[in-house]
Amino acid sequence: MSDDAAKPEDRYARQVAYHAIGAAGQAKLSSSTALIVGLGALGSVIAETLARAGVGHLRIVDRDFLEWNNLQRQVLYTERQVRDRLPKAVAAEQRLRAINSDVHIEAHVADVDYRNIEELVAGVDVIIDGTDNFGVRFLLNDASLKLGVPWIYGGCVGAEGRMMVILPRETPCFRCLMPEPPPAEMTPTCDTAGVVAPIVNVIASLEALEAIKLLSGNRDAVQRDLVVVDLWENRWRQIKLDNLRDNADCPACGQQQYEWLRGDLGGQSTVLCGRNAVQISFPDRPAVSLEALAEKLTGVGRVEKNPYLLRLHVDEYVLTIFPDGRAIIAGTTEPSVARTLYSRYVGG
């Protein structure tokens, strides 16, 4: 800490003054590690809140890059970062370091899947959901149960949001609540229903508060109901989940069948919420040289490149390729079209 930096007793004075936290709780926060998966609308609010609260180590993960439509609700980012075409994890790391230099920020530009989730969860005290993807949530649920790490689910669309805390072997798990992902045609998204920024802030704040309770040693205060909020209709509900506890029929917590964690369920193509885009990934593909790919694509279309990604504009599509071979294909919501474009311009 530099000589002119704020002392912890000054920075966190108002938080320490709260009776349930105090100096002991603040010390626990400073020695804790939180994993935030997804740094979009929810994740950006969560990450900033926990950095300001003094959680000592934030491991942040996101697969995506910044676009202009993010700024309406993703409060952590700036216009300059959008212009620089930064991955969200890199942009978040920059901003969080500027907010609180005492917090260790560990950023990963990565697609969370069954191959890397256990490594990401290793050593953390809580997992916090900032995603917009049910497949990732089922994966987080499996990892949480297997490794015994609490996780906090949150989601919102339109003006409605939901939040639930999963404490392994204490509360019902996410799969008790939702045994399978809902059919895509029955699930509203920010593409079809839109989203208003205030519901994002409410749900993200609820998630962050539950994390602070856990990390400060206040486990007994943790919310154990499903919270459902509709800001537009001015409704706030807490739904008891006691009847789901000890559900022997649950494949995850009842039978310890971690199908998502094994890779038995889930796929490598994901339609991205609100983006008219598809992400595709290849589990066994070797790393891609962005420099060599840029040279290869000379004359094909307009190419933009920075150390983190390459972007090709061709016809009505935009292909964004990452060094791990993963790509986001904008201009379509059809996985088959996305895979064809990838094969045509990238190869494989």
TrEMBL record:
<dbReference type="InterPro" id="IPR000594">
    <property type="entry name" value="ThiF_NAD_FAD-bd"/>
</dbReference>
<dbReference type="InterPro" id="IPR045886">
    <property type="entry name" value="ThiF/MoeB/HesA"/>
</dbReference>
<dbReference type="GO" id="GO:0005829">
    <property type="term" value="C:cytosol"/>
</dbReference>
<comment type="similarity">
    <text>Belongs to the HesA/MoeB/ThiF family.</text>
</comment>
<dbReference type="GO" id="GO:0008146">
    <property type="term" value="F:sulfotransferase activity"/>
</dbReference>
<dbReference type="Pfam" id="PF00899">
    <property type="entry name" value="ThiF"/>
</dbReference>
<dbReference type="GO" id="GO:0008641">
    <property type="term" value="F:ubiquitin-like modifier activating enzyme activity"/>
</dbReference>
<protein>
    <submittedName>
        <fullName>Molybdopterin biosynthesis protein moeb, putative</fullName>
    </submittedName>
</protein>
<feature type="domain" description="THIF-type NAD/FAD binding fold">
    <location>
        <begin position="12"/>
        <end position="247"/>
    </location>
</feature>
<dbReference type="GO" id="GO:0004792">
    <property type="term" value="F:thiosulfate-cyanide sulfurtransferase activity"/>
</dbReference>
<dbReference type="GO" id="GO:0016779">
    <property type="term" value="F:nucleotidyltransferase activity"/>
</dbReference>
<dbReference type="InterPro" id="IPR035985">
    <property type="entry name" value="Ubiquitin-activating_enz"/>
</dbReference>
